Each structure stands twice: as structure tokens, then as C-alpha cells.
Amino acid sequence: MAGLLHQILSGLATGGIYASVALALVMIYQATHHVNFAQGEMATFSTYLALMFINLGLPYWAAFVVTVVLSFALGVVIERVLMRPMANAPVLASVGVFIGLLLIFNASTGAIWDYTTKAFPTPFGDRPLLGGYISGHELGSTAVTLVVLLLVYVFFRYTRLGLAMRAAAYNPVSSRLVGVRVGWMLALGWGLAAAIGAVAGMMVAPIVFLDPNMMGGILLYAFAGALLGGITSPLGAVIGGFSVGVIENLAGAYIVGTELKLSLALVIIVAVLVIRPSGLMGRTIVARV
Amino acid sequence: MSGNTLAMARAARGAGQPAGLLPTAVVLAVLAALTFFLSGYQLFQLTTAIAYGIAILGLVILTGYTGQISLGHGAFYAIGAYVTAILMSVYDVPYWATLPVSAVVCAIFGLLLGFPALRLGGLYLALTTFGLAVALPQLLKHPLLQDWTGGVQGIVITKPDPPAWLKLTPDQWLYLFSLAVAAVLFVLARNLLRGRIGRAFIAVRDHPLAAEAMGIDIAMVKTGAFAVSALYTGIAGSLGAIAVQFVAPDSFGVFLSIALFVGLVVGGVGTIGGALFGALFIVFVPNVAADISKAAPDAVYGAILIAVMFVMPAGVAGTLGRLLARRS
Amino acid sequence: MIKRRPLLGGMLAAGTVALSGARARAATPGVTATEIKIGNTEAYSGPASAYGMIGKTEAAFFKMVNDQGGVNGRKINFISYDDGYSPPRTVEQVRKLIEQDEVACLFNDLGTPTNTAVEKYVNAKKVPHLFLATGANKWGDYKRYPWTIGFQPSYRTEAEIYGKHITAATPKAKVGILYQNDDFGKDYVNGLKDAFGDKYDTMVIKAVSYESTDPTVDSQLVTLQSAGVDVLVTAAIPKFAAQVIKKLADMAWKPQHYLTNVSISVGAVLKPAGLKNAVGIITGAFIKDSTDARWANDPGMKEWRAFMDKYMPGTDQTDGNTIYGYAAGQTMLQVLRQCGSDLSRENIMRQATNIHDFVPATLLPGVKVATSPTNYHPIRQMQLAKWNGAHWENFGDVIEGSGS
């Protein structure tokens, strides 16, 4: 029984990782109606930036803020320079650019900062809590994820900018007519997604350790979590992320063994999606003919 | 999305235009003649490119013609490769006889995946297929399948010898054999896509409701497209396995699926011929990238990919088609 | 991209003619009066690109050799291609090296699946396939594959040594294994099976795997702890090894921990995981660790450091791949020196299989490179070591693996 409880808690801790990355995916989707496959690698890149600042002597939170700001700028620049000219290109060409970005970020992170595993500091202390069931960092990073969730929720729900951004993604033509600067909304969406990704990276790195492929495996789970919860809903994505973490642990420990835990987790997710195609919390989009 | 489908439709029409039998025959003859001018290693490269070209053609059928995105076709490629390897090594089946078997096996798997795909549009389908690509190597390693798949060690197979009456090296023979298989598959694809079924595909892609009103069974068309697409990719996997003479879970990681997808977008989504350009891209450009930078070959590869997307957003074939159309 | 070089030959007849023509020009492919070509495949891109450092180190090493005048009057032309750790690309690159670049031999090609894909081809071509960078047990089958020879102690032998130590030190242990679900991880399971024999099922109460794409191994550790494991054998790559060491401390769980020597770098594993958390870990090492204070004044490591400073400035010196690459490069150099003026493929292979107690600078004291025509396992020795919080403390004798 203690084993089961421990598996669930450990699943929630891992799920917190997926949830934080899933939020970045929701952000970019809400803003651009694309899913950026390079999101994870950009987050890894940002995390290395943060480590560089910390090694240069900046205090943790100063490095944190600088990294978030720089990542935001990086996101905006990528949108302006790379995505903007692709605005009228077929969707698949944009996906091609995403894959290109993924390769570039992954390879240059390795080339710049080496491939050796590196520790990343945590501001929350590392004492085991609850008799070893959860660490101080896991608790702190979950709190950060929830704060980001709240911010994203409030942003989209209660601010004019958030509304404008959703409008720009949902119907660019009409938005332009009512005075929304659609181009800048997209850039802003990229910036915010990159910033959230940077936060996720800095929260994840103390747990999984920092290496250039840190986000490779995580992105798939985060993607699954976001879709399970509903990619239009920040809350759904977070719940989805946590659920994937727990489902995966329980499947691996009690049902099929670790070799098949990913496969089974995916089957469960697909089954849920077949029943509820827009995810647990997502809005069903009805297309008009 | 509408701009996209328009572009795809335009490209598709380009493919539908009677390119003429003569140019096709000339291209084929030139390709066949290469057998006697290239070294064994170069023929091997081209043989792999042919295999990838057939796999990408499978993606063209699925994504280009029915609008269903798959990021997991590496899985079908792997299944085809394993069917051939197991049949050749365990049951001593001749290499050519394994192709129809892997075609059937992969078509069945494609059909099975096609059903959930009906309910999962766009992103959801992309995730599901991508998940399949990630999970398949683990399935191949599973202890229950190990007796067949050889587990992590994989299976080594013997290279087929040319028929005794032909004075060819195995590399030359395999290249010609693959070329012949590819030619047949490309012609079949062309006939399929230009006929009634191809029009049904496009109708389902561009206007599902209208298509349904016209009496097209959307579910059948979509799952059927999945099956045909998987069949093509499976045969490609078989050819790839025979050429490489080895299959192992590590040969079919997610990178393969991504490479096939890259081949699709580089070649051009809606054109049969684009598959060939895409295949040449994914075989040769990584080597060029590694020659430019050993520190980060993937960064160079990614940059080249982005540059191609900038210059030719509709892919090589799409852009060529448009240029030709403008001239005439 | 497709070179037109063989066009002329092709016009006469098939490619084979061109090839035999080339052979007639030079006594041995890849060897001229001033140069010897050595081929290599490496993962500079893709999931295993961390190992690209081995190839970079070897390229720098041969550059140093050339700067010092080469070997027997010849410069080494080291041609290293990227295969992205994908077997089909390995086949492509190895064929390019042998058929187009016409290298004299292949050296330190990376990976088990990748080398398996070309083993048969290389042996059919009778090209020396030397000192493969893989710890699989299968390299060294000199009867079936006389042209293929391994390099480092196999993972399986290493695991067997741990198994024997467990049997001797804690015969009533409840052993748990955490392994990566691939050839590397499974070799440790097999090695423990070799060591425990019939008792494997009673000794090992739980074996769980993880995938290299898994974000964490927390769940696996919880499973092992719940099962009541008190001796843990971890066969994990550095990132996951660091996670395990840290998580064990977080869980306040203290099993006797045996850790694969793939992941014992002080700088890249123990420091990130916490030096204190690692106290008590046992491993079997054969190579010196640059971050271990014990080797600060070691002549071999000084030689390596001088090389790094001059030929690989700016490179992360905590990366164990550079130390490994240096040892491999030195072994290759030794073979070429032994060859003298006869650089035929047959003689290269003969010398590679007749190395008598050669000691590369970066191997642990007592560990030697030794081969014979019936022993294709160049490094067979290792010594158990325990982490004491400051450095790896060797204990017991240098143990010789079976090497069969």
C-alpha cells in the first residue's frame, strides 16, 4: 500500500514536469494555432543560459528573471525572422521549420555547452519531505507551475491583450478588422511560450539533470498531457500533465512492466481522446461549413 | 489551413497533368543506366534513397491526398523491415517473396491505426502517430517478441545474389530490383490518385461534408488511405532492410519518422514525384551537413531545411510544378 | 554529391573492375609512401552525439602524431564520418570509407547495433575492423569474424565481477537491477546471470528497465524499494545514474549500490548528484578519471592534459570520452608502430592481435592492453573501487575477466 501511495506521489512529481511544459504548448497553440515541436529544445537552451548566468555569479532569482526576459525576446525574434515570412506558406512548411529549429537548438546547445550532464541549482532546498516521498524542490516547482497556470489563465480570461491574442489566432481576418495587430499578437505568443518554456526548463533541470537532450522525452509526454487535458485549456493541460505522470507510473509498476509503460500510457490517452476528441477540459470546436 | 489545402490541391493538379509517358520512360532509362556507371557504394546510397522515396510516397498518399498528418511512418517502415528480416532469416523465404507479405501486414496495421485516426484530426493524429514511432522500438525489444525480432541485437540478413544468368554484382542487382519495384509502385500510385479514388481522397480532404453528401464513405476512404499508405511504407522498409542487411530497434527510432516527414515537406506534399526529391534530400543532405560541421551537423541540417522551406514552401516538386505552369 | 570519379571505369565495365584497378595501383589500399588512411564512424549527430567527443579526440590525437613526424615516415589521414548512431547510415559510411576513400583499416567505430550492421561486410572485404568503441560482449569472436576486434572490457564481464563480489560480500542479498532497455543494459542482466547461475532467481528479486527517452527513473526506484531490495545494481548512462544517486538520497534509501563504470565520472555524475550522496558506491574501473584528485600528479594524466591544452583547447576536460579516445588513439598508434614498413591489411590485423602488455597513459595502474590471435579482448582487467566522498578508492586485486 505504501508502495502504491509512493508511486502516485512520484507520478504527480513527474507529472508536474509534463504539466509545466504542457503549459508552454498551450500558450503557443492559443496564440498561433500551431504546436511548436522545438518548444522543448528552446526551453533546454534557455536553461543553459540560466546556468551560464548563475555560473557568472548572478543570484538565482536574478538569473531566473534575466533568462525569462531573454527567452521572451528570443521567442519574439524567431517569430519575426523565421515564422513571419512563412505566414502564407502551407502548414506543413511551418512544421518543416519547427523541425529545423528543433535540430538547430538541440545541436547548438550540445556544441556550445558540451554534452556532459550538469547539475542545476534549486531555490527551494533539497530536503526530503514527508519521509522521502517528495523533495523540497518537487514541492516548490509544483507551486511554480500552479502560479504560471494561474497567470496564463488570468491572462487569457481577464486581460484585453489575452483576448486579442486568442482572437488573432482564432480568426485573424476579423481580428484585423477590429484593430488587433495580428502580427504582433503572434510574436507575443511566441515570446510568452518561450518564457514559460524557460521557467519549465529551470524547474525540470534540478530533477532530471541538465543535458542537451533533456526535453526530448519530456516533450512527448507534455504533448500527450496537453492533448489529454485539452490544448485550448491551461487548466486542462496541467491536469492532463499530472494524469499522464500518474497513469504512466501505475501502468509501469502494476500492469505491464516498465518496457511497455509508454505504449500503454499512449493507448489510454488515445482511448480517452477517441471518446472525447477535444480532451478532458477542452472546448469542442464546431466547424461551420 | 485553407491556404494550405489550396496549395496542395494546386500541386495535386500539377501531378495529375499528363506528364507524358515518354519523359517518364527516359527518366527511368537514365536511372537504370546508372547501374553501370556508379560504384557499389553509390548504388547502395541510391537504393536506400529509392526505399525512402517509396516510404515518402506513402506519406504523400496519406498527407497530401487525404490531409491526415502522420509523424510516425517510421513505425510502418520498421514493421516492413522486420517482416522481411524475420521471413528471410527464420523461414528462409526468398527476399522478393517477402515484399507482398510485408505489404499485407503493414496494410492491416495501417487499417488498425486508421480507425482511431478517424476520430483524431490534425494535432491529435500527429501525436498518436508520433507516439507509435516512439513506442515501436520498445515493442520490438519486448521479451515476448524477442524470439522473432532478436531483441536489442536485431537480425542480420544475407544480401541476395543476382540470378545466375545476369552478370551483375549484388549491389547492381539490388539497385535494379528496387528501381523496378519503385517504378511499379509509382505507376500504381499515379493511377490510383488520378482516378476515382484519388478524387474521393481530395474531396474528403478539402470538403468532407460535401463529399459525404456526394455519397462518399468518408470513414472508408480515410482508413483505406491509411492502409495504402502503410502498405507503401512497409514495402519501402523491406527494401531498406534487404539493402542494409540488418534490422535492429535502433535503426527505427523517432529520427527515422522525422526524416521521412522532412522528406515529405521538402519534396512537396501533393506530388508523387516530390517523394523522389525528398528521399534524395534525406539521404544526401545529412552527409553534406556533417562535412560542413562536425561540431553540430544537425544545426547545419536544420538550417538547410529551414532555408529550403523559405525558398520552396510548397516543396521542390510543388515549386517546380508552379514554375513550369507559369511558363506554359 | 555523387562523385563522377568511377565514370571512366564504369564505361569499361562494372564497378568491380574499377575497384580491382585501384588495388593494382597501390599494394595496400589507403597506404602510400607518405600517408596512411584510417576510417572511423561516429555519432556526431542524433541521440548519441555526446560520444562525438571520442572521434574529435582521436582526430586531435592523430594531428598531434602527425605534428611529431607521423609514424614510420607516414602521416595519418584520419577520416571520420557521422552516422547519427543509425545502423543504416553506418553501412553507408563504412562502405564509403572502404570503397571510395579506400582506407587501410577501420578504427574505434562507435556503437553495438551500428557495428553489428557492418561486421559481416567488413569481414567479407577483409578490412581490419579495429578496437570497436562498444562494451558488448560479442566482439572477439575471432573464429567467425577474424577481422573484427573489440577494445574495452565488456559490460557482461564487468557485471560478472559485481555478481561475484556480491556473492562473496553479501551472500544473502536481495538484489535489484535497474537497467537501460538496450544492449548495454541487458548485458549487465546477463552478466549477473553468469555470476549467480542457478541462484539468479533467488538472488535477484526485481529487475526493472527504463528507456533512454524516459524523463526520470523515480517510479522504477520506488518499485525496487517496495520490493525490499538491499543490493542495487545500476546499469544506466550518466544522466540517469546521477538521478538515481540523488533520488536514493531523497528517498533516504541506502542499499549497497553497484554502478556501471560508464557512469562513474566525478565531474559528470557524482558532482551533479552530490558527492556525499555517492559515498559507498562500488564500481569496476579501468580508466583514470580526470576529475579524481588522485591523478593530479600522475605522469600519464599530465601527458593527456598537455595534449588537451594544446590540441583541444576549450574542451570540457571532465568529459571522460576524451580520456577514452586518447587511450584508443595510443593503442592504434602502437599497432602502426609494430607494423613497421609492412602496412598491408594482413599485417595490420596481425599486429593488432599481437599486442603484448601495452600500457596507454590514461588506463588505471595494472590495466594493460594485450591481445593474441586467439584473444580478441584487448582490455580485460578492472579493479573494484569504492567512492569515499573524495575519490574512488581501489580495493582488492586487479581482476582479469574471462575474455572468452
- Shape descriptor of chain B: globular
* The CATH architecture of the largest domain in chain C: 3-Layer(aba) Sandwich
DSSP strand count of chain B: 2
Average pLDDT of chain B, rounded to a whole number, is 88
Outline of chain C, from the CA principal axes? globular
Strand order of the largest sheet of chain C: 2-1-3-4
End-to-end distance of chain C, in Å? 44 Å
Beta-strand percentage of chain B?
under 5%
Biggest beta sheet summary of chain B: 2 strands, antiparallel
What's the CATH H-level homologous superfamily of the largest domain in chain C? Response regulator
Q: Helix content range of the residues of chain C, please?
A: 40-55%
Number of strands of chain C: 11
Radius of gyration of chain C: 22 Å
CATH class of chain B: Mainly Alpha
CATH architecture of chain B: Orthogonal Bundle
Residue stretches of chain C low in confidence (pLDDT < 50, at least 5 long) are: 1-26
Share of helix of chain B, binned: over 70%
Q: What is the CATH first-level class name of the largest domain in chain C?
A: Alpha Beta
Q: DSSP strand (E) fraction of chain C?
A: 15-25%
Provide a quick synopsis of the model.
The complex is a heterotrimer of chains A (289), B (328) and C (404). Chain B is mostly helical.
Polypeptide structure, described:
- The complex is a heterotrimer of chains A (289), B (328) and C (404).
- With 289 residues, chain A is an all-alpha fold.
- Chain A has helices spanning 2-32, 39-55, 60-83, 91-113, 136-158, 160-170, 172-177, 182-208, 214-229, 234-255, 261-275, and strands at residues 128-129, 134-135.
- In chain A, helix 2 crosses helix 9 (214-229).
- The mean pLDDT of chain A is 88.
- Helices cover 77% and strands 1% of the residues of chain B.
- Chain B has 15 helices and two strands.
- In chain B, helix 3 crosses helix 13 (274-292) and helix 4 packs parallel to helix 6.
- The longest helix of chain B has 27 residues, at 40-66.
- Mean pLDDT of chain B is 88; it is low at 1-18.
- Chain C is α/β, with parallel strands linked by helices and 404 residues long.
- Chain C is built from 14 helices and eleven strands.
- Residues 1-26 of chain C have low confidence and may be disordered.
- In chain C, the strands form three sheets. In chain C, strands 2-1-3-4 form a four-stranded parallel sheet, with helices on both faces. Chain C has a four-stranded parallel sheet with strand order 6-5-7-8, sandwiched between helices.
